[in-house]
Amino acid sequence: xxxxxxxxxxxxxxxxxxxxxxxxxxxxxxxxxxxxxxxxxxxxxxxxxxxxxxxxxxxxxxxxxxxxxxxxxxxxxxxxxxxxxxxxxxxxxxxxxxxxxxxxxxxxxxxxxxxxxxxxxxxxxxxxxxxxxxxxxxxxxxxxxxxxxxxxxxxxxxxxxxxxxxxxxxxxxxxxxxxxxxxxxxxxxxxxxxxxxxxxxxxxxxxxxxxx
Length: 212
Fold this sequence. Notes:
Layout: H1 6-13, H2 22-44, H3 54-89, H4 96-137, H5 143-168, H6 174-207
């Protein structure tokens, strides 16, 4: 899906088709957020002023590129996971047998449709950790891009959260639901706060602590 242009992706996103949707869009936004960190890293490497941290920045770039690749895969994975769920919603329910078949199909489809956005949230958390290091070690001339990147990753995290919760609300497997929602809540509590802190530090670095 990401082989198409950004224009094509946005066009598909705005259509009435069920895919791509909010999960895929969250992964797309996450990839852009992480790419901004890589850009900062690439602008840092080779500069005499940052020679002492160059080796560390190269490692950050390598780790970040893996996160970008994972986000890109998750765009397609989200579409693949949601399609069976959309089909299940459309199944007939005129008889008891049809109702039972629909419910069984729906519950099965909900699992994959939930696990993919949870993985997007995990990638966002990893990306926010990496952005924290780019903020500390990256070139100051591009520090604003770290702030933009971490904002994108936070938005992607919140988007992934909603895509998990809309599925867990109708799950019958309460143990699975509790485990997923607990992990998600922990991720969001830690990483939305961390993203906000990084953004504030970037803003303070730009403005010298003056309020906006």
